[in-house]
Amino acid sequence: MLKKLLIAAMSLLPLLSHAQKKDKQAVKAAATITVEDLKKHLYIIASKEMEGRGTPSAGLDRAADYIEAHFKSLGLLPGNKDSYRQFYPLYMDSMTSTAMKLNGTALELNKDFQPQTSNYTAAMRFSEVVFAGYGISDGDKRDDYKDLKVAGKLVMIMDGSPADYKPSQTGFNSPAGNMGKMNAALSRGAAAVLIINSGFPRTRMTNTTSNWSMNGYKAAQPLFSFSVSAEVAGKILGEEGKTVAEKIKAGTVANKVYPAEVDLEYVKTSRTAKASNVIGVLEGTDLKDEYVFITAHYDHLGKRDTVIYYGADDDGSGTTGVLEIAEAFVKAKAAGKGPRRSIVFMTVSGEEKGLWGSGYYGNHPIFPLDKTTVDLNIDMIGRNDASRKTGDSTNYVYVVGDDKISSDLKVISEGMNKLYVKMELDYKFNDPKDPNRIYFRSDHYNFAAKGVPIIFYYDGMLGADYHRPTDTPDKIQYELFAKRAKLVFHTAWEMANRNDMLKRDMKLEIPSRN
């Protein structure tokens, strides 16, 4: 028996030795990822002409043109049939008029009321108002709608929450938050809501234009809602406007139906635009119907007035990394060492607005997600984290997600790093419960949510330069940038050429967002 075990162990030695041996073609290809080329691309991507690459914008389109031209120059195939672009629609609503009357008297915009920009075009008239206190519905803890019938009616609620109330959840899902209150009224069938706001009269004018959104077509409309002053609320409730908020806080205003003739009107128009993901493909050989994705977002915050938010690190660095990694793979193929699996190089837009581009791709995949072995996502790899107090901050990268979805990931990631690059792999942000929630804040998440294994590469918090106009190309640490890009290249090389796709043997745990 011992002899058999020794023979078996001896037979594994060549395999183990081979696994630890550098691939000379990979080393040669990785060497084409140079400081000079990274700098050349980044100074264009994060230039004044790109105007911060807001989604949507002319600067974003110019950046997309530059990326597409580079993919074409490399000979990459178009990723969307005969096009390098995958477009998705965007919508913006603009208010053209609004009005509110109380008992036949016209109220003044900004002094007496303000509409919510989520409103749809409508005109409604009500003969009564249901006052529901703070409008909180929180299980057995509190129900301001007890004994009230509000289906099809106009409801009025106070903003904030009473001092003695502790919600069962905090943050976005709090029953005392604006969204929680709207959901409570909507679930009971309310037709419209008035929110008493003690901040009137307001010097800040009504926001007449919504932000760009992908939600042009909704499965359900939001509540028709307006903010009103305490004086307006007092006229409805039969109370002195100056003291109505204090009386509501004291609980001396009854939750009941109050007679009042209320006219509400809101009219808007809608604009449409589009943005794109830019996709180039290097076709594989015997496993060409399986895919390795390498992604980054090429958008940033755009231009505000005359101030440009350059976004050199966030995420000009990731975008530039994708361009250089693509070139390295193309040169390897030209030298006779093409990848077995097809490699999809995808730069997405709209990340800063809410992972729009990658979300659209996840819901409209061009290549089968079940044949996508991995997404290696790069979002900020050009600088170091000044707050990092341990280890060598000139030779590290934060790695997120390599211990989730697939048990193969971490082994490959650490093995390729040890063999080729020898960086410190820092897992500080890898815990999904980390308060920064980095796992959910970049484009890899829209692959992970569909069951695709991912690794996210990240350099950390930029401090004073994060999302500021001062994130510029001159502050990039290009040697470190190149080393991180080479790590992604070597990891992709292994994933593209190994015999099997990555196992999907681990469930992704998504913590609740409190």
Characteristics of this structure?
alpha/beta; two-stranded antiparallel ribbon; 15-stranded mixed sheet; 514 residues; Aminopeptidase; disordered N terminus; 13 helices; Glucose Oxidase, domain 1
What top-tier CATH class of the largest domain fits best? Alpha Beta
Secondary structure class reads alpha/beta
End-to-end C-alpha gap: 57 Å
Helix proportion range? 25-40%
Mean pLDDT: 93
Largest sheet: 15 strands, mixed
Radius of gyration: 28 Å
Query: What share of residues are in beta strands?
Result: 15-25%
Which CATH-level-2 architecture of the largest domain?
Answer: 3-Layer(aba) Sandwich
Tally the structural domains: 2
Tell me the CATH topology of the largest domain.
Answer: Aminopeptidase
Describe the global form: elongated
Uncertain segments are 1-18
Looking at CATH, the homologous superfamily of the largest domain is Zn peptidases
DSSP, total strands: 19
The tally of helices reads: 13
Structural account:
With 514 residues, this protein is an alpha/beta fold. Helices cover 29% and strands 24% of the residues. The protein is built from 13 helices and 19 strands. It has a 15-stranded mixed sheet that branches. β17 (396-400), α11 (408-421) and β18 (424-426) form a beta-alpha-beta unit. The N and C termini lie far apart (57 Å).
